[in-house]
Structures are given as structure tokens and as C-alpha cells.
Amino acid sequence: MATLIFTRQLARFTDVPEIQTDATTLRAGLETAFSVNPRLRSYLLDDQGSLRPNVAIFIDGHTVRDRVHLDVPLGVGSTVHVLQALSGG
């Protein structure tokens, strides 16, 4: 099973900071998270289903670059970190 881990900044959107999923793609894994916490969807994805600019996702330590399709494969033991992308100075 892959593990999706949500940072503290997302705590107001999800009561479950860590989710286990049998999903084989990132999008399917996110859908698992959305089924548990529907409010999370509108924070992570825009109206077209693309990843919002204020969100960063790492799979097994690698940045997700395709913010539109989210069809990145998940392995059985993959770890997905979902966090708020902060900027400023």
C-alpha cells in the first residue's frame, strides 16, 4: 500500500494526516483521500482538476512535475508527501 502524508498546514482540511491506499496512480490516491475528506479536494485541485500552485507533492522524495494529469505511478511502498508550497521573503 502507498501512504499519503499530509502536513500540519493541511490539518484544517483533513482529520486524517496519513492515508493508506491501494491506488496505483497519484490521482487515484488523491481520490482516496478526497473520499475521506471531501473539503481537501478544493484546496489541492483547481476547477479543472489540476494541482493548485500553492501545493507541492513529493513521491518517494521526487517532486511531482505534471500538475495537470497526476498520473504518476505509485508503488506498493510509495510514500507521498502533500504540503503547502510556501513562498515569500
TrEMBL record:
Matching InterPro entries: Beta-grasp_dom_sf (IPR012675), Mopterin_synth/thiamin_S_b (IPR016155), Sulfur_Carrier/Prot_Modifier (IPR052045)
Gene3D superfamilies recorded: 3.10.20.30
Domain of life: Bacteria
PANTHER family per UniProt: SULFUR CARRIER PROTEIN CYSO (PTHR38031:SF1), SULFUR CARRIER PROTEIN SLR0821-RELATED (PTHR38031)
Protein name: ThiS family protein
